[in-house]
Specification:
The complex is a heterodimer of chains A (112) and B (115). Chain A is mainly beta and 112 residues long. Chain A has strands at residues 9-13, 18-23, 32-38, 45-50, 53-56, 61-64, 70-75, 84-91, 106-111. Helix content of chain A is 0%, strand content 46%. The chains are: A mainly beta (112), B mainly beta (115).
């Protein structure tokens, strides 16, 4: 079983900011939080990773509260090409192979 | 292009048969992961190898086995195939041992169809 819970699907419009939240109540001290994006029939692609507080890169931001029991992926000004499945992964070293199961992710649909 | 290669891209075979899927990791990456993705199950972790040694097992059936060779390429062997084994099989690689700490680079996948 995955260690995370995400909404099954979300939709938004071009130009909007989209926030996808992932719950991971049983996160361990040494676990990292990583988000991946997957388009149909392609392998997942790394978006962003964090351990605590806030991380930002050129495509997204990741917000992690102090208790680390959830995290929020923020995609600024989305476009149609951001329509994809987004996975939240919480894992450390594979001790607990559960953490390496991506689950079903969040299907994000962006409309014009 | 992630730098991870998988062959074949497509594979159609009959029930009861055995197949081998091959993965070449990115240059320098020591970890290889195998995943199975079917429509109703999402992306399921199968097994993780690091520098030739098995490090973690997920929901991998006994009919499935894998190995990582000295040149770091990996093979996933699926035997006594059943219709339910039809899925996309992804290989991913990363530079380090710590699965959660290092970004995984995914290959394009092998689509297996069992008829």
């Amino acid at each position: 079983l995955a260690k995370t819970t995400q909404p099954i699907s979300m939709d938004s419009y071009e130009g909007q900011e989209v926030n996808i939240t992932c719950s991971h109540n049983n996160i361990a001290t040494n676990d990292y939080i990583t988000w991946y994006q997957q388009f149909p029939s392609q392998g997942p692609r790394f978006i962003i990773q964090g351990y605590k507080t806030k991380v930002t890169n050129e495509v997204a931001s990741l917000f992690i509260p102090a208790d680390r029991k959830s995290s929020t992926l923020s995609l600024p000004r989305v476009s149609l090409s951001d329509t994809a499945v987004y996975y939240c992964l919480v894992a450390y070293s594979g001790g607990g192979a559960d953490g390496l199961t991506f689950g079903k992710g969040t299907h994000l649909i962006i409309q014009p | 292009d992630s730098g991870v290669t998988q062959t074949p891209k497509h594979l159609i075979t009959a029930t009861g048969q055995r197949v081998t899927l091959r993965c070449s990791p990115r240059s320098g990456d020591l970890s290889v992961y195998w995943y199975q993705q079917s429509l109703d199950q999402g992306l399921q972790f199968l097994i993780h190898y690091y520098n030739g040694e098995e490090r973690a097992k997920g929901n991998i059936l006994e009919r499935f086995s894998a190995q990582q060779f000295p040149d770091l390429h990996s093979e996933l062997n699926l035997s006594s195939l059943e219709l339910g084994d039809s899925a996309l099989y992804f290989c991913a690689s990363s530079p380090g041992l710590l699965a959660g700490k290092y970004e995984q680079y995914f290959g394009p996948g092998t689509r297996l169809t069992v008829t």
